[in-house]
Amino acid sequence: MKNKLTYIIIAVVALFSANSCNTLDIEDIYDYNAELVWNDESLVNAYMANLYANVFDNWSPTQDQTTQQLSGIVFYPDRINITNDEYKQWDYSKIRLINEAIQNVTNGTLPADVKSGIIGQTKFLRAYVYFKMVVYHGGVPYITVPQDKDQDDLYVKRNTTKECFDLIIKDLDESISLLPEKIASTSSNFGKVDGCFATAFKAKVLLYKASPQFNPTNKWDNAYWKEAYSANETAYNKLKNLGYALTAEYDDIFLVERGPEVVFSVINTYPNKTANWDYGVRPGSESRGNAWASPTWEFVKEFPMKDGKLYNDPTGKYYSTDDKFLQAYWKNRDPRFDKSVVWNASVYEVSNKKGNRQYTSLGVADVLDDFGVNPKAGTNSTNLDSYSGFFIRKASDLTLLQSEVEQYDIDYIVMRFAEVMLNYAETANETGKSEVALSILKEIRKRAGIELGADGKYGITATSREEIREAILAERNIEFCFEGHSFWNLRRLRMLDRLDGTTKHGVEAIAINLDGTEMPISEAKTKAGTNELTETDFKYSIMQIPVTGVKVMSVPEKYYFFPIKKSVIDLNSKIEQNNNWDGTFNPTLE
After folding, report:
1. What is the arithmetic mean of pLDDT over 521-526?
2. pTM score, two decimals?
């Protein structure tokens, strides 16, 4: 089926030719013979498949480098400015293609039920693209028809941010009314937008609308929170009643595709569509090159212990001092840690190697995996600017051999029910329904495998609105680690100051004898070759990363809204720059 679809898409693309330009993003706009496309259901579906591929992201091993989760200093001083392409979202080529689909399907001769399905999908896609633009920049020109360069005024102004939110919700409401309520995981249409995803996404949009990002002087008590709570309660109840639920085992969320937690996913199938996840997260010795990013010591410390409390919480069952914790950080952790992170000497049965342990110690590990500066190793690591002594285990398909890492085709989950639950919890907490929020946190932690505790709270000690807010944020950080949520949550909550001025660290491992003296490198390497060395056969020390270059994150206040690129404004004087970038446009709702 996918091979056939590929050829159809090629046929559609062959019909396109560059014919005009769009002053909103100065890219070619496709032109084609409408009679050949919009009256043929197969070609329309191919066009839609192309739209989906352009609108939705796929796996990316580096997307959480923007926070403390992964190595790498993404935000160096002046990384974002008005002249470069960094953090600009001005997707009017996609909007043009979406608007053409809406207009031409409406005017075409396809059966009514086919028309409504396509229009429902395209209105969702339009809302999805505009929402991302608004999250980046605030209000943007909300174009709903294909502009004609000869007849339409292309020099449009930005809609206010409130107008954009209203139009996004209007598009979503219309899409919900047209889409099937739920597409079964066994259906050939699975992977298309349905009413459940649209309803959950609408709730997320309204969560953003109420958020501090858009309401900086009235962060927690603005009128939008009530609206957000209502939408999120509706989404949660609707999806739960239709069978959505937390996947029983955390690692099965990704590795067992189309589970009960999947609200919407991008379908990957080898050889027609693959992703770069395993290629990018595996240690270099088990991939086609070095890992693209690795978890930091800062993030390792953020995982709770098995009792749900942090290691340095004096009330915790597994309380430890900083020094003791460093030497045994892998013990008694939240089970999500074991399922998300690879650490030195941990069992890592990659490439189906039973009993294999992954080493990172300099002189002991493979040169593509090592991290450290131990002078007794007699060699220098080449990984000190990119590695941390940890690797990502989460969602990795360990059955793939090293030669097969580019065949990774596990579906990418755009939204899962756990996010719907935590969005509901957040809006409940901000509208005085703390018990709802706490009950959801307990469900998430129960699935994670955290101990119930004598009080039945899974280690949750939060009671006040502020404490529960922090507990929800912390839970998101762990539950969705490496999935690209963390930076956007901090930005939505106006907490980017928690990243500004921060540094990152890794952990070096050096093999030791029973008496604590350092083991000869040759002996350690031999023992590692037969997986004899365990975690306790090493001592650990902290190193700042990267070793060279910029070492401190720079995330200024003005990053709550990114600028409009200067070249866009140069071409259309009616486009105002954001006021946090020396312009006149207010990107907030205030």
Report:
1. 98
2. 0.94
